[in-house]
Every structure is written in C-alpha cells, then in structure tokens.
Amino acid sequence: MHFTVQILVLFLALLSPPPQDQTESNGTGNKIVAKVLGEPLTENDLWLHLARRHKNTPPGQEALSQVVEKYLVQNEMKRRGTRVEKAEVETRLNELSKEVAEKSGGETTLEQELARADIKLATFRDELTFLVGLEKMARTDFSIPANTEVTPVKLRLWLQDLKDASKVKLISDESEAPPQAIAQVGKKYLTYFDLGKELMSSLPPTDVKRDLKALAGCKLIGRKLEELDLTVDRKDFDDEVARRRLALSKKSGLGGISYEDVLLQTRGITLDDLAHDEEFNSQIGLRKIVDKEFDEEKLKKYYEDNQDRYGRSIHARHLFIRGQKDVDPYQTSSRSFEEAKKEITGFHAKLSDPSMSFTQLIQDHSEAPKTPPAGELRFHRESVLGAPFFDQLWELEQGPVSDPIRSPAGYHLVQVIEKKEAPPLAEMRSKLLNILMTERYKELWEEASVEILLGQSSE
C-alpha cells in the first residue's frame, strides 16, 4: 500500500515547501519581477535579497536545510544511476487519484486535495518524481520488500543518514569562500541564489512581495544617492551603529543589553551580517539624503512650521460629558450642548466639597476613555487636541480644576498637571530627521515609476 494523499502532501511539505501563487520561474533567475524607474529587478536580485534577509531566521534555516537535502538526494541519485521513469510517476498519480476518489465517495479529486494544500499539480508531479527516486534508494538501503510501503519516517531517517555521512559546512566567513557561497557540500558550493530560490517558494506570497517592495525601495534610495553624488561607506555604517547603541543605552529596563545582543536575539545576525544588509545600508543612505536636503536652516523652518506636532505639550486630566449626537462618533449621546453644560456644571459644583475627589468623579462620570489613569491626557500637543481647545488649556493655571470648557464634542472640566514649552531644536533634531526620513521615503515612492510584476501571469 502506498501513501495516502494526506500523508504524501504532508511529507512533501516537510521535504520541500511547495511554491505559492507567485510568478512562475524560468529557472535561470533572469525573469523580471519588478521595474524601478524603468530598470528591471530580476529573480536573481530577489533571491539574493531574500537569502540575505532571512538566512538566520527559522524560515531561512529550514529553507537552507531543504536546499542541502535536495542537492544531496539528486547527487546520490546521479552517483547510483537511480532513474525515475515518467510511467512510474504517472502510475503513482493514478493510484493516488483513485484513492482520493474512493475515500471521498467521488466528491473530490486529487487536484482539489492539492489545491487545499496550495500545491499545483505540475509542482506535485515534479516533487513526486523526486520522492519516487528517494523511495527507491531508501527501499534498497533498508531492504524493504517491493510490496511494503516506505513510510515517511523511513524516508526521513534515510535523509538524515545521508546528511550525517556527507560533509556539510555552513560558510561563516565569506572571505574564505567563492562569491555568494552560503554552504559547502563536499566539493560543491551552494549559493545565496539557491537559498533565495527556495525561500521564494516556501515563504508566504505576501512576505515575498513585501520583501520585493523593500528591495525596490532600496533601489529608489540608491538612485537618489547617485543623483546627489552621495555614497554609503564603512564610516557611515559605524556611525549609524554608534547612534543606535546610544539610543539603546537610553532605554530603561534593558539591563545593559548590547546592540549586538539585540541583533542576535531579534534577527539572529551579527554586525558583519548587518554590514551586508541592503535594507540597513539603504536606511543609512536615506539619512544622508535627508541630511543633505535639509540643512540647518531648512530643518529649523520645518520645526517652526510644525509646532502643532512637535512644540508645546500639556499633561492634564479631564472629566468629559458629550454634547449633541451628531458630533458623537460612538453615537452614545442624545443630549444637547446646553444639557451637557448643565450636567458638567453640577459636577463642578460638587468639587466645592473638599472631600470630593476629582479623580473619583472622572472615574464615575466621565465619558472619555476609562483606561488608567482615568481621564489623563499625557503631554498632548495641539495637533491632537485641536488649536482652540489646546489654547484654552494652555491658558489655565496648573493645579486647580477649571470651569466648564467647551470643545467640538462636548464639555470638559480640566486640571492641568504640567505644561512643557517647545523643546529646543537641538534636542529635537534626531527625532525630526527620523520623521523626515519616513516622509522622504514616501515621497520617493510617489515620485517614482515602480512596477511590481511578481504574481502576474506570464504572457
């Protein structure tokens, strides 16, 4: 008896993750998956990016294991002269098709079963060819009779024995190996392109497309650097790492953890790996672009023009009563503004009793969010509160609870706890540059011609 289709699908998924619904590869890596400013990005570009990005992540490690296993099996088949005839594969497909039809009472087909597992029939046939060859060798080595099933467990054991007997070495120092080599199996070097090709098949399509867009973004930044006659060198990299180390040191509760530890724990990479990370180096390039386009005068003007976002801030607590229904986003108030004012005036009168707690009044009666601490506005700026309301709060004294104050949504009793003037530009410079980097990156995309072709059907 042969595998049930469910077991076979499961084993194939473990052995070699099936391609998802993506652009079909022509196998050479020359297929165009995107165009950036008219320049093509090929599968080779994407494979290299995927491999560099994911090689130390769990999906990357799993994909690398698949690349090694595939090479070992194919090489072993070649060494032994093991051949898989087309008729053998078709016989197996027919057997599986009959089994599916019998077990489902004719209500489903093999193609439908494969579709549920996101496997195309053509892909399944190719992988089944590989599996039949693997089964032949395992049957011989384990002396399994022809009429006895070679179970997935036996196949996995055979694969592990083959790996144990082979000289598999992961490349840790790229200077000691040929360009783009990631592993060595005997005398054969497996490359980042091999790993990237496997990752393109095994990662979710949304992840692959996200990484492709990130790669396109790197190319946009690279083109802008060329226009501005800027480059990113090792000193720029060291400066950025130093900047991030400093930022990390200012964060509380991390117990003196180093930036290198963060890289290892979050991404499984070293500083040397980071130096080869195209996205990281593009971020450095983006910072240089912003530094050049926004000199001190332009940065100062940007800061002055955006005081509502980055300037004065207020820390206060408030009791809020909603006004008329048509401005109530949650549709919970049917009272008019006059009714809201009357209600909040009553609460204000209660505060004449020294034993009455404003915080408790907020907790019991405020219609603002009750997330602890109740009714607090923690250093909100004008852009959040709105200019008229913010200005009214700024005029209040710190400490006392205000008289009722009207806003577009209702009435408030406000107690100002602290006011902060706009911080000096020098203090805000790093934050402003980070914000400008984000805004500039969006502008590069809006200004550019970028076509994402991955996932589109071939003509």
Provide a concise account of the structure shown.
The protein contains 20 helices and ten strands.
Distinctive features:
elongated, Chitinase A, domain 3, 10 strands, 12% strand, 20 helices, three-stranded antiparallel β-sheet, disordered N terminus, alpha+beta, 459 residues, single chain
Work out the number of β strands. 10
Question: N-to-C SSE series?
Answer: HEEHHHHHHEEEHHHHHHHHEHHEHHEEHE
Indicate the radius of gyration in whole angstroms. Answer: 32 Å
Determine the strand fraction and express it as a percent band.
Answer: 5-15%
Structural class: alpha+beta
The stretches of 5 or more residues where confidence is low (pLDDT under 50) are 1-7, 13-26
Number of domains: 3
Count, helices? 20
Residues in helix, %: 55-70%
What's the multimeric state? single chain
The span between the termini is: 42 Å
Textual characterization of the structure:
By secondary structure, the chain is α+β, with helices and mostly antiparallel strands. The protein has 3 domains: about 5-205, no CATH class; about 205-305 and about 435-450, no CATH class; about 310-420, Chitinase A, domain 3 (Roll), CATH 3.10.50. It is built from 20 helices and 10 strands. It has helices at about 5-15, 45-55, 60-80, 85-105, 110-115, 120-140, 150-165, 190-200, 205-225, 235-250, 260-265, 270-275, 280-295, 295-305, 305-310, 335-350, 360-365, 380-385, 385-395, 425-445; strands spanning about 30-35, 40, 170, 180-185, 190, 315-320, 375-380, 405, 410-420, 450. The strands form 3 sheets. Strands 7-6-9-8 form a 4-stranded antiparallel beta sheet, with helices on both faces. It has a 3-stranded antiparallel beta sheet with strand order 2-1-10. The two termini are about 40 Å apart. Mean pLDDT is about 85; it is low at about 1-5 and about 15-25.
